[in-house]
């Protein structure tokens, strides 16, 4: 059996690994010319923890994790307004949280392909999808532009190519039918500044600001990672790659204090900057094509579970498809995947929509309310409220 997986991000790599371990031949297509260096820090908890432990990926993730002491909000002078102990945050999230940079998660999943027999999974970087079709005989075809570009055939086509999925556009319809912007954009970049890295070691620091938020944390490399979220005033919902992204960020985040000013000086010419959105679809599979991860069920960074769901969803899809040996077997596996996985994704999407209402305070009253919630997080009852706002779950 042969699979064509489009997108060598977290979900695509995990799906490809599980299929390869099950004996499938996998063509893994990625339009980037190598592993992507951009991305923000994610708190890894929930279903992805269980899935990564089950498939043997967890040790690689744990080795790459950061262990911050606290999450702090600061004013424009850099003075702390409220904070949350990270041990307490871990408890609110279920007691098992890893803080991981998104590129590190991808590298861990990529390294785990070494568990698959040689030649079973072939990664084609720089390969762009130019066409995709479900065939009448139950198979699929994909036209590829790039290195050794040609028309590939397979038994299943997996779209793991993110919220701007080309597979989704080719098989299910245009992006506008499924992408639901949440009224914000997020930017992220990594820069070198030893002084900032030393100052912010072992803590995540966020600006306690209205309508926008900048975050900073230091990396073990001596670099700093910046995370910027702001309202999408134009409401365009446009994707990444805007040539004026740096200028827009400098304009949006002016006046938030010296630390943010320094981050803006360090901002590269073309930072990651994309719409904060969810992917809402009535069905994730059609014929022998299926979507996994953000391509079919993006929850947005506000839900805090994107990486976790990418690993858990990819592992489930790969394991269900693994035993299939015919078009009927593939069809049955895709149906079971959607039946079992959709409730998890929809619950996380609801958590993301709740978080969107308060993530960026619109006024001083909302900002004060956030401070109160965080300061009172240790109180019985309030801890459940914090859990719902931060991680989309209720502590037991």
TrEMBL record:
Q: Which Pfam families match?
A: FAD_binding_3 (PF01494)
Annotated GO MF terms: FAD binding; monooxygenase activity
For this UniProt record, give its keywords in alphabetical order, as a comma-separated list.
Monooxygenase, Oxidoreductase
The record places domain FAD-binding at 2-347
Protein's UniProt name: FAD-binding monooxygenase
Native source species: Arthrobacter nitrophenolicus
- Taxonomy, superkingdom: Bacteria
């Amino acid at each position: 059996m042969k699979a064509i997986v489009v997108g060598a991000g977290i979900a695509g790599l995990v799906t490809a690994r599980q299929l390869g371990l099950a004996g499938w031949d996998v063509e893994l297509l990625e339009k980037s010319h190598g592993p992507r260096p951009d991305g923000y820090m994610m708190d890894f908890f929930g279903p992805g923890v269980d899935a990564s432990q089950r498939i043997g990926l967890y040790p690689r993730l744990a080795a790459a994790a950061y262990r911050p002491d606290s999450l702090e909000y600061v004013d424009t002078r850099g003075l702390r307004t409220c904070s949350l102990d990270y041990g307490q945050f871990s408890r609110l999230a279920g007691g098992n949280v890893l803080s991981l940079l998104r590129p590190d998660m991808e590298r861990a999943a990529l390294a785990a392909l070494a568990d698959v027999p040689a030649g079973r999974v072939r990664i084609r970087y720089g390969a762009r999808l130019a066409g995709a079709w479900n065939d009448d005989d139950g198979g699929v075809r994909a036209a590829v532009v790039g290195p050794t570009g040609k028309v590939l055939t397979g038994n299943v086509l997996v779209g793991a190519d993110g919220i701007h999925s080309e597979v989704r556009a080719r098989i299910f319809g245009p992006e506008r039918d499924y992408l639901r912007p949440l009224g914000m954009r997020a930017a992220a970049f990594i820069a070198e500044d030893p002084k900032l890295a030393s100052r912010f070691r072992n803590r995540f620091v966020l600006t306690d600001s209205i309508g926008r938020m900048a975050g900073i944390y230091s990396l073990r490399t001596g670099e700093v990672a910046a995370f910027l979220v702001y309202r999408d005033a134009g409401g365009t919902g446009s994707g990444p790659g805007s040539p004026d992204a740096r200028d827009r960020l400098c304009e949006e985040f002016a006046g938030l204090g010296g630390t943010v000013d320094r981050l803006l000086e360090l901002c590269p010419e073309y930072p990651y900057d994309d719409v904060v959105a969810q992917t809402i679809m009535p069905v994730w599979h059609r014929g022998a094509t299926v979507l996994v991860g953000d391509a079919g069920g993006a929850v947005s960074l506000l839900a805090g579970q994107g990486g976790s769901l990418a690993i858990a969803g990819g592992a489930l899809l790969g394991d269900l498809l693994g035993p299939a040996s015919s078009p009927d077997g593939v069809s049955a596996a895709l149906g079971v995947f959607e039946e079992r996985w959709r409730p998890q994704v929809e619950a996380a999407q609801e958590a993301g929509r709740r978080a969107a209402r308060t993530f960026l305070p619109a006024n001083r009253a909302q900002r004060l309310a956030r401070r109160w919630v965080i300061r009172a997080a240790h109180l019985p009852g309030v801890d459940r409220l914090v859990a719902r706002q931060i991680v989309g779950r209720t502590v037991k």
